[in-house]
Amino acid sequence: MTTSLRPQDRSILENARRQVLDQGVGLAEEQLLDVLRLPDDVLPDILELAHQVRLRHCGDEVEVEGIISIKTGGCPEDCHFCSQSGVFDSPVRGVWLDIPELVRAAKETAAAGATEFCIVAAVRGPDIKLMNQVKFAIDRIRQEVDINIACSLGMLTPRQVDQLASWGVHRYNHNLETARSYFPQVVTTHTYEERLETCAMVKDAGMELCCGALIGMGESLEQRAELAAQLAALEPHEVPLNFLNPRPGTPLQDQPTMNGKDALRAIAAFRLAMPRTVLRYAGGRELTLGDLGTRDGLLGGINAVIVGNYLTTLGRPATADLNLLVDLNMPIKELQKTL
Q1: Whole-model pTM?
Q2: Which DSSP category does 172 fall into?
């Protein structure tokens, strides 16, 4: 620990160490806000503590995942950060991916060392046509490659949740994105409660819940702490951390890129809120953190990564992330069939 810490900063870190590292109890909202307000010269200490928490409560393995969109663009929702919304004048246009392309992408994902392949669709929720395509894609992928299959298809009905679970979907992604208090500033076509309903049904059906955050959208530090606490209360298996990459044509196109040190502080805070949760690097890290910051985050609480490209933006080459894991002596998690 840095020797020149102010007494109040030292107290925040020591209390977090006792509570999270030793007792395995995540920090509450006010405690998280204290962490997020710590000065830059304390950042190495925060990251080191978050890394120790990750190693003690999650182990040293890193889970690798690839994602692909079965339907891109044309979504009727108005999520202000998303270029796939049909409400805004963005350059993304509606495209459906055929099943052979999905199978090929799943094979490439597995070949890159990933154990998880997520099928994503830009929709409010799936209709019968989309559900049928997803079922056909799952069957074909299973014939060709041994990989866990996850889905992200928007808000679900109880019947659709049961169908996905019966098809062996390993994990379902449905992000909260931002804090309840800030949500109306980001989305107006559906409510926070609707998102929570889908999350609850997914868990009740026995699927793993992947529920993440998009930070850097103009929310306050108080709202960032609020979001971390609200995610912790959901007890998701996995939390993907996205950083806003402002997209042309969206209401947030002029939002400044998040400061890299603030992003690293947020990574550490989310780990201290959820000591046993899979915390995954997702979209925007290339722009916000760069290569050095990506390394710092892996040594600051992150224990999973999405490799390759995202839905509408380019990611780091998969080899760059995999080589970094080798350099850091972090083993890649092996495939485990949990359903």
Answers
A1: 0.92
A2: E
